Amino acid sequence: MTLAVVRSIGSAHRLRTPEDVEDFEQEIVDQYALSMAAAGLTDGHIAGSRSAIVEFVRMLDGPLWSATCDDADRYLVDLRHKGQAKSTIYTKTYFLASFYDFVMARYQGDVHALTGYVVQQPIDEYNRPKNPAYGEVRIPPSDAEVQALFAAWGPSIVQARKYLPAARDYFAASLWRRLGLRINETVMLDIRDWRPDLSEHGKLHVRHGKGSNGRGPKSRLVPAINGADALIDWWLAEVRHQFGGDWSDPDAPMLPSERRDPVLLRCRRVGDDALRSGLALNVMRHLPSWAGRLSPHVLRHFCASSLYGTGMDLKAIQELLGHDWLSTTTRYIHVRSDHIEQAWTQANLRLETRFTTEGP
Questions:
Q1: CA-based nearest residue to 49, from 101, 117, 118
Q2: How would you classify residue 182: left for phi > 0, otherwise alpha for psi between -120 and 50, otherwise beta?
Q3: Strand 203-209 vs strand 256-261: parallel, antiparallel, or unpaired?
Q4: Is 138 helix (H, G, I), strand (E, B) or coil?
Q5: Rounded distance, CA 94 to CA 80, Å?
Q6: How many CB atoms sit inside 10 A of residue 12's CB?
Q7: How far apart, in whole angstroms, are the C-alpha atoms of residue 64 and residue 221?
Q8: Tens digit of pLDDT for each residue in 308-318?
Q9: Whole-angstrom Cα distance, residue 268 to residue 104?
């Protein structure tokens, strides 16, 4: 993206005309965009922020520094009346709150000197929507249900009309189940990202992990635990080379499409829609009670819950999933309904054992 040349706000002395007011508003927005670029935020994040700010400012009766909480209330109600998704409204609210924090921190004095206004934060604790992710519970299938799905799915790929896409879809879903990879992380894997030389099980170099707050991809090394090492060896040794001769090209996609890139002369990268469709089709066939409900992200929740159930600690699961905050990881853990009762029983057994061995 390109940004306009920005004048120093401190050089302005008066706002004599409506054009001066408009130029001053534009300068503040451009300064904010420059600060986001300096912080390393992605072009998409910057563009989304600017779009939300412009949308809000156009709704105001006055300039951007005149905004109040009442204006934000009207804006958020209007977004809901337009049918925008809760996640979209939450994101736009976040953009606006960050922008007005910026204006108050850097340019409160300039704005007051030039306009007489004291800028206030229009997004407060009363109108700020809560993160919709906190209210969304993706309870995964049980261990037995997932076992049944993959036990039926695996043998069926040899009978599929197209073996290679069927095997690829099974491989991708198995990565979600065993390592909790996000779908985009899976799609963006290249052959060189498999490093069997690192650690006992080998590691996947996930280069396109989800960055926080628009800060771009965040890479991590994911150990191929939970049977993933044998799964990857099967894929690379028995299946991947059948897609084409690019199997030895380290920059070729780990999960290819059946189509070839005429410029790079190798397989194209599979799209996430194809992988989602492959999972949905096989869930409908082999686990129909979960048809329409078992998504790649639900399998990510299953992975976290399953590993926690085997005794893996939360910090290790956080690193595996690539979460910035442990509180995020805790929302991925769904334990059995008798987990509390079992923990209480085990605690009492330990107490009884201690008294028995130590005596009165």
A1: 101
A2: beta
A3: unpaired
A4: coil
A5: 16
A6: 15
A7: 44
A8: 988 899 999 99
A9: 48
Helices within the chain (DSSP H only): 18-38, 43-59, 69-81, 86-115, 143-156, 163-179, 183-187, 228-234, 272-286, 296-309, 314-321, 326-330, 339-358
Q: Among 42, 277, 74, which residue's Cα sits nearest to residue 183? A: 277
Q: Hey, what are 253's tokens? A: 């996609």
Cβ of 41: how many Cβ atoms within 10 Å? Answer: 19
Burial of 92 (0-12, 13-18, 19+ CB in 10 A): buried
| pTM listed for this prediction | 0.70
Reduced to 3 states (helix: H, G, I; strand: E, B; else coil), residue 174 is: helix
Q: Is the Cα dihedral 138, 143, 146, 150 positive or negative?
A: positive
Distance CA 80, CA 86 (A): 8
pLDDT tens digit sequence for 79-105: 999 999 888 999 999 999 999 999 999
Q: Which residues pair with 203 in a beta bridge?
A: 195, 223
Can you list the positions of beta strands (E) in 238-284? Answer: 256-261, 266-269
Kindly state the greatest CA–CA separation across the chain.
90
pLDDT in tens, 325-353: 888 898 888 876 555 556 667 777 777 77
Residue count (the chain): 360
Residue 267 and residue 253 in contact, taking contact as beta carbons nearer than 8 Å:
yes
Distance (Å, rounded) from C-alpha 209 to C-alpha 216? Answer: 9
